[in-house]
Write a structure and sequence with these properties.
Elements: E1 2-5, H1 17-36, E2 41-42, E3 51-53, E4 56-57, H2 58-63, H3 68-81, E5 97-99, E6 102-106, H4 111-122, E7 125-128, E8 140-144, E9 152-156, E10 158-159, H5 162-171, H6 178-188, E11 192-194, H7 209-227, H8 237-247, E12 254-255, H9 259-264, E13 270-272, E14 279-281, E15 285-288, E16 293-297, E17 307-314
Parallel strand pairs: 1-2, 1-7, 7-10, 11-17
Antiparallel strand pairs: 3-4, 5-6, 5-8, 8-9, 12-15, 13-14, 15-16, 16-17
Length: 319
């Protein structure tokens, strides 16, 4: 998927610098999400020249950002790292590309125009936009006007928040291998911390779509439980209810290993904690009945500590 930041979504619409900073943080979160999905968001080189607060350019607003780390991260992305949308441009300066709502105002030589051209020619381009903005609708409707009469319509998916971009990124990863399962998990569940080799034990198993879907469903619940933790405490009331729904009863998805298993299989159930550098016994696990696949994770679940997925693979306590 070819993704670009729509610079025309910055058009002086913001009423304060704080509103700009909030918008930039959302865009940076979209960039992080795209990276987890193996994609990148391309930038227009002239982004900082766009108007942000009235006639005040984005560059001036960014340079005044009190949060130095966020300011420098944006500057690095926009001025050095890129990649930049028009460095490998496909449309030429002669192409008359316009927004459908403004058919007489060419947007040629913009990242938005490049995305529109690529969507017209390959069908594989989308954009992200600032919000609030006059250009938050999705799809964005554009026109290619090769002459004064002909008009080719173009519809571009336009993302301003994580849910729609997540769906788009998930759609370009067919769930057809254990590697794809890992990519889906790391993309979708950012409340979880995955060990580097967490999914390696699956490689010896023939791929099975049903198992992959069940693994993702159990990870989804763990991700949601982690999001329902409360600072200074454990789970919120909603978190307790969700956790009990899936950890109590004969058909519970999540259980602890028995005391005897922790003795007999102590070595198998001991993993290196990537956060502390120490080795620890990890008895709590999620269950997938088909082929007895297990997901071992850190417990108890609270706000302060990461919820670490140590292992996804065949059952470790087979007697």
């Amino acid at each position: 998927m070819w993704l670009a930041l729509n610079e025309l979504s910055f058009h002086g619409q913001f009423t304060s610098a704080g509103e700009v900073y909030d918008t930039i943080e959302r865009l940076m979160s979209l960039r992080a999400l795209a990276r987890r999905g193996g994609q990148t968001i391309r930038l227009p080189r002239g982004l900082f020249d766009r108007q942000a607060v009235g006639a005040r350019p984005l560059k001036d607003v960014v340079l005044a950002w009190p949060d130095r780390n966020k300011r420098e991260a944006l500057k690095s992305w926009a001025q050095r790292e890129g990649p930049f949308a028009l460095d490998d441009r496909q449309h030429t300066g002669d192409e008359f590309l316009v927004l459908e709502a403004a058919p007489d105002d060419p947007i040629t030589d913009t990242a938005l125009a490049e995305a529109a051209w690529r969507k017209l020619k390959t069908g594989d381009a989308e954009v992200v936009s600032a919000s609030p903005s006059a250009l938050t609708q999705s799809p964005l409707r554009l026109l290619w006007r090769p002459d004064d009469v002909a008009r080719a319509p173009i519809e571009l998916n336009n993302h301003t928040a994580q849910p729609t971009l997540l769906n788009a990124l998930s759609g370009v990863i067919p769930l057809d291998s254990w590697a794809a399962l890992e990519r889906h998990a790391r993309l979708r569940f950012d409340a979880l911390t995955f060990c580097d080799n967490a999914f390696h034990p699956l490689q010896a198993e023939p791929f099975h779509l049903g198992i992959a879907e069940d693994v993702l469903e159990r990870l989804r619940v763990l991700d949601e439980v982690k999001r329902l933790t409360v600072p200074g405490h454990g789970l919120s009331a909603s978190g307790v209810l969700l956790w009990q729904t899936h950890s109590v009863g004969d058909k519970a998805w999540f259980t602890d290993s028995s005391d005897s298993e922790k003795v007999v299989f102590k070595s198998e159930l001991t993993f290196l904690n990537p956060k502390t550098g120490a080795r620890q016994l990890v008895g709590w696990h999620g269950k997938v009945k088909n082929r007895q696949i297990r997901l071992h994770f850190s417990h108890p679940i609270n706000h302060a500590d990461p919820l670490i997925i140590f292992y996804v693979g065949p059952k470790l306590t087979k007697r």
